[in-house]
Structure formats: C-alpha cells, structure tokens
Specification:
heterodimer, A: 411 residues, globular, B: 568 residues, Immunoglobulin-like, 2 domains, 11-stranded mixed β-sheet, 27 strands, 24% helix, elongated
Amino acid sequence: MLAEFLVGVLLRLSTALTPISQWFEERVEITTPTSSWKRIEEGIALKQFGLDPYAGDIVHEPPLNIMLYSIISSYASYFFILMDILSALLLKESIERIHKNMVDKEISQECHSTFEKLKMKLNERTGYYSLLIFLFNPYSVALCASKSTQCTSNLLYTLILYGVSTEKVVLVALATSLATYSSLFPVMVLVPVLLHHRDKALSGITTFVVSTCTLHYISYVISGYSWGYLESVYGFVLTVPDYTPNIGAAWYFFSEMFSHFTVLFLSVYQLNLLLYSLPLSLKFPNSPPLVIFSLLMVLALFKPYTCVGDYVVPFAMLPLWLHLFKYLQQFYIVAVATVVLTLLWPVLWYLWVHCLNANSNFYFAVTLAFVLFQSFLLSDILYAKMRRDYALKNGIETKKIDGQDTVVTLN
Amino acid sequence: MFYVTICLLALTTRVSSFERYSENLDIIHLPGNKVNTVFSFTSVSDNVNRQHFDVLPRSLVSILLNYLVEELHLSLTQGLWRDNLWGYSAHSAPPGGQFLVWFGGPLDTINERWVNVRNSISGITCASLSALSSEDTISPKLSLKPVGLTSTKGDSRYMRYGVSPFEVVCTENLTPWLKLLPCGSSAGLASLLDASKLYDTTYHSLAVNVRRVSCEGCSGPGWEIQLTLSLVFSPPQLSGRKDWSFRTMLGKTLVHSCPVSSSTMVKVRTLEPLDALEITPTEYEIISDREIVYDAQNITSFKILNVYLRFKNKEITRGLEEKPALLAHTYISRVSSSSSGHIVSVFTNSRDQDIKILYLQTIPWYLRAYIHTMKIEQILPESKILQFQGMSLTLAKDRSHPYTLEGILTVPADSTIKFSIQFDPLMLRWNEYPPDAHHGRSIPSGIVTFRDGEQVLRLYTESPLVYLPTPDFSMPFNVLCLVSTVIAIVYGSIFSLTTKDLVCIKETEVKKGLLLQLVTAIRGLLKKERAVKEGEKRETDKCTVEEKTESKADEVCDSESNETVKIK
C-alpha cells in the first residue's frame, strides 16, 4: 500500500515539478476555462491589482475558491498532489465499504436456485484495484501535473462516495453543496442518495440548503457585497459563451450553431445533462453507487467544459462492477477506443493548430468518438446490471418456451 | 436695381463673415530617397448655427451639429510610418482606420450618438467605420486629450475611440473626401491628386480633423476643419538621379488655384542645402537654407506650376541627422508548445536622458490576455525588471468591449525596455469571423505619447496579425446532426433502460428495428435460395454417396473375399 502511494506521489512530483507540467497546463484536454490554474492565478493577480476578478471574462471560479487558492498559490503543485492522495485514500476506503455492502445485500436477497453460480464473492482487493486505477491513471497524473482545480472537485466526488458508503447523508449533502458551489452540475448527485435514504432526506436537504446559502452569503460578502460573481461562475457554464476546444462535443456544437437556434439547443443540451438523475434513481433505487457512477459519467460526457479529469473518479469506480463484466458486451472495444483516441488528441490538435494542415473537424471527430464510446461504456454497465439482476431472479440459463429458444430482451 | 443691390450686399456680408479657407502643400525630403508630400486644406469659421456655408462642407457640419460633436479625428491609412528611417511625422496615424470623437451634451446618450456618428461619417467617407462596433470602442483615460476647445474639459467619458486595423483605404475613400473641399478636385492643390499615382505610394494617410477653436471677433468658439493627405513617394530614379517634379511624382501640374482660398502655399523642405539643388521655377521665397516656399495663390505668375527639383551632385545620400528620441515597435511572439502567444512592445530611448512615456494598448476580447503574465523589463544595456508608474486597466468582456491598458513608464537613457503580455486566441462562433477568416486578425496598434523637448509626440506602433483557430465554415448542419445523434444515442439507450424491463421471449418474436428486419428478410431470401440449391446438390450428392457405398460394399466384399482367400 505504502509503496503504491510512494510511487504515485513520485510520479506526480516528477510531472508536476518538471517542465512537462507546462505542456500539460496548455493542453485543452486537461485544462478547461472553468478549471485552469492560469485563470486562478489571473483572479489572484486581479484582486491584488484591486480589480474585480469577475469584471473580465477570465475567472470562472467562485470567490471562496479563489481565496483558498490564493492562500496555497505558492505551493500549488504540492497542494494538488495532497488532494490526489486524500482522494485515493477516501476512494479506497469507500469502494471497499460499498463493495462489502453490495455483497451483504446480495446474500440477504431472495434469489433463484442457480444463484450460487452468480454469487458475488467478497473481494478484498476491490478497493486496492480502484486505488491503483486512481493513482496510476494517466488522466489523473496529467490532471494533477496541470494543477487543474478539477482535482479538488474529484476530492469532493470521493467524499460523496465516502458519505454514501458510510450512509452519512449529511456528509453527502455537504460535499455535494461544495461541489455544486464550484461547478453547479454535481447537484444532481444528491437525488439518488436522498431517494435511497428517505428517512434522512430532510436532514440532507436542510444541510444542502443551509451550506449552499452560507457559501453564497460569504462569497457575497467577500466579493464586496456584490452578486456579480454569479453570472461569471454559473452564467458561464449555463450559457457556454467560450468555445475553447475540449474533449466534449459542446464546443463545436455551439461554435457552429446558427444563432437563432442557440437558445433552443442550449436549453436542450443543459436539460439533457440534468435529466438523468431522477429516472436512474427511480430505476435503481437500491444502488446509489451505480447511479452516482452513471451521473458522474453523464457529467463527464455532457458538461460543457469537460476534461479528462472528469473521467478519473468514474473510471476508478469500475472495480465495483467487476461482477457485471460477464455481461458487458463492448468493454474491450471501449477500452481500446479510449487508449487510441487519447493518443489521437494531441496529434490532431498539433495538425490543426500548429501545422494548419488539418482543420477543426479532425479534432472534433476524435472528441465526438470519445463521447460516443464512453456513452457505450455507461449504457453497457447499466444494461449488464439489469441483465444480472434478471439472471439472479430467473436463473442463468435461458428457458425454452414451447420448445423454442428464447432471448432476454428489453420490452 | 434695388434687389440687385440687396443681393450684392448680402454677398459681400457673407464673404466678410468669418469663414476662411487655405491650402498648403508641404514637400519634405525623407532619408532613403523618399518624398513626403502633405496636402492640408483648412477651413475656419465662426460659431454660427446657420444653414448656409461658403467653404465649410455642409454635409460634415450638419452631422457635427446634429450629434453634438465637439471634436472629431478620422484617419484612413495604408502602410506604416517608419519613425526609425524618416523621423517623426506631424500627421502620424495607425495602420487602418482610426476614429476619435469628443462629444458634448448629455452623457447618457453618448453611446447612441457614437453609433450614429460612426454610421454618418462612414456614409460621407465611404469607410467601413460602421464595422467598428462597441467591441472595438474604448475611452482611454490618459492617452488621448482634445486638441481644441471642449465644454467637457477632456473628461474621457465624453470620448469614444476606435481603431479598425483591417480597414482598406482606396480611391473610393478619396473621391468623397475631395467632395468636402470647396473647390473639389477641379481647382487648387486638390487638382494635383491623381488616384492612379496616390495608391502607388509607400504610405498613404487620409485624415479629417475637426476641432473647436477660438477665433478673433467671433461670438463663440469656431470650427476648424482640416483635411490632410500625407503621402510618401519613392520617385523613380532615372539614370541614378533622384530628381522629381510634380509631373513625375503626382502626374499633374497646378493649373488653377482655388478662387475661394485665402492662401495657397507650396513648401519644399530638403535634407540637402539649397545650393546643392536646382529648383525651378525660381519664383520662390527662401525661408531657410533648406526650405523654400511658393505662393501659388496667384497662379498667373507661373502660368502653370510644376515644381522641378534637380540634384546637382548625384552622390548625396543622407540619413537622419538626429536619431529619433524614442522608437516603439509591437510584435507577436508565439510560445512553441501551444497556441498561445505574447504581445510584445519594445521601446528604445536613444537620448541621454530618461523619457517618460504613456503607453496605450488595446487588446481585442477574442485574445484572452492574462494580466498576471504582464511583464516590463529593461533588456538593454542590462536586464532588469521594471514597473508601471501608474496604470489604468479595463478588462475585456466577451462580445462587449476590449482590454484597455494604459501605463506610465520611464524609459531610462540609452536603453531598451520590453513590455509583454501573454494571450490565448479564442475560438469564435462561426459567424463571428470576418469573411477572410484564415487571414487572421490584426490587433490595434499601441499608442505611445511622450514629450520631446517642447512638443508632445504621439507614436503608433505596428498592428500585428494574430491567427485565430477557425472552425470549418461549411459544417454547421453536419455538426448539429452529429452531436444531436450522439445525444440521442445516449438519451435513447438510457431512456429504454429505465423505462423497459427485461423479459424472456421466443427468438422468433423478438421485435426488430427496421434495418434489422430488412437484413433478416434479405438473409431469409438468400437462405431460401441457398436451401433450394443445396437441396438439389444434396440429391446429386446422395446419389454419388450411394454409388460410393455400393462400390465400398463391393470393395468390402472384395477384401472379404481376399481375406477369405488368404485364410483359405
């Protein structure tokens, strides 16, 4: 364990403190307008000049975050490494607990006679696997090296997971309100947790509302009794005025939009992002971790300013679904596509922006394919979950009706 | 008879009202065999809001009066004035279009009036100033001050300034500009202007300057409207000689002077002493040993005026006698590993005393400039970090206004200092690019204001070109369809997963999509065909097999018989 942490820290130190971090900082796949460290530095500098950071269009982090980062700005690299280590620890702990809960729950479940064959075995190493994925995921290392504030968001996501694993709704609500304060969309993570723990829902909602209001009141006070930051922070992610390329599809979608359609498509796009929390929570009411995984994937797919950092936590949650892998249909294709497309990003970016040989369509094709393949992963895991539940209930073997072969299908 | 007298009286009174018009042509020799010709046409009038003007262009004045304009400067320039080679120009202007207006009247209507003035002046000069939107408009606090009388005492809130570096100047701007003159291009110095020669020059700057001036005996501040045209010619060097004349340089000679003009002066200033030159006609007045002047108002004394200058000694080449005190340049430097770059301005002081400068840089909003990367350092003779002594900064807002950065700097004696700021070029909406999107975009040139001796000088730096990443302009429909498809795939799969249940049904009852149905149908057809063929084949095969078995049976029998034989 210690050795893995040491190697993880060394890996991060060797990228964060060498000139390669500069390269990572400039990569559009890693830093976005809402998470780049350069913009935090700008916000700090503008405050020092005595200017309102939100008067311009560079700073999109809320005032408290700017304040936090201005305190740690001189040793930011170490701060983000620390964030990653904390996330890894929390992740290991919570994944282990969630896995144990899942196994326990399954034993107590009423099942078909063939259940023994499918039974989920308690795997002591699940937490360890996700720790490994988190620590040695190139996305995570690059994210940490680029000093992206997404590292902090990832810590909050793992905190939410920890809350879920220990069934502390208040902790989940608190972490969600912090994550929502930074980037608005994580608010939907609260829905499955509240629906699962209906008895604690009230305290959860109260905690969320109170902490959100407190955060905003403090922000209002420290930004000189002005609500100006709201537009720069939340208006920015809702109206998507910046078309800097990223690994999502939104940048090219809105850059190529006919102006009279913009409002329509913008609202559809944002609704699409927020839509999934309720149906998924209702469909899988007993497995909030799965819904949270799905919502984090949706967030990574459709957040207007998405980056590789958004995939770090959902990918690290994959060991939780090891028992579903039997039913996955496209995992191999998705894994290969992820690697290939990740390698293609910098290549096509170079061809487009530096050589001017290719054009934006090339880069867009890669980002769109990436979104598509990751969405396959999401729907595949959800389908596998349903298929396995069906098998638990009705047996592994498909029955024969009137002597004819049958198939299990959605209807 | 009475009416005639009245008319005459009216005429004489009008002529004696305070409207004066004068024309000047300055021909200045520049180093490097360049000739700078500056035409200036000045009209001055008293402050009378009347409907009739003798020499003032009514189309212009009515705009000024209508929108309560107190001062207006417009310049349309092609090329760059090279301070380092030619020295400072009294008529310097940034490349492209520049438009500066000082307003009077109420403050709250200024934005609206600015739009109207822009559109009206665009109309009368055929310039695309209307493309100068609020995105390019600034109101710098320190750098630009009114040169005439204003009621607002130079409060920058009453001023609007915009530069469009991409403005192309052409003969379509010259024709309406000439119409603002009382004699048009038919008489006077303006008749020397031949478009085919003018646009063959290294530098070309057309300007309209309007200001309020106090005039003697007027009731209030009067108008001064000055139209100037500054050109830099490279006269053809015939057989190694640098001689020029009106005819070789401008393609025309002066035949008529403008009758309403109070004076018409043609000045020639050379770098060489007059005794090294031969200038005809000889009816000039000598001002100094390098400057002469012709009074061209009374053209009859020349018949036609074709100033001809001949060098007696052909080897003379002279550079600037004195290096300009301060030089300023702007360029873009790119960071190799990314698409971001730096805007760099370099100031060189060649005097032996410090020069205090006021530097104004506008950065368009589509270049995200990072203030924390702003750096001022002395690079020559030694490297040292400097600071702005005073600074005024307005941050850019997307699709609203640009960055305005004004700073006071001291350039130490005999040294060079460098200002740099990092920027990221933005990707814009596909319809926000100019028609020639792949050409890139020019950023407005910086303005450097400083005091050199008694006079206040203003330098304009280059306006460098920045390449912005461009989308594919033919893709809107495709992108819309592709992204919508991906969203539909995700939405569709999650929708069916959450709304449907897994059931066990017969393989034959599986509902198939249209495409799948088609495929199965085709497959079914093929199968049928194959089945028919195979059926036929099998029958023939059967026969052969049967035959084979028979023969085999024979063989068996044979072998048996053999064996039996052996046994026997």
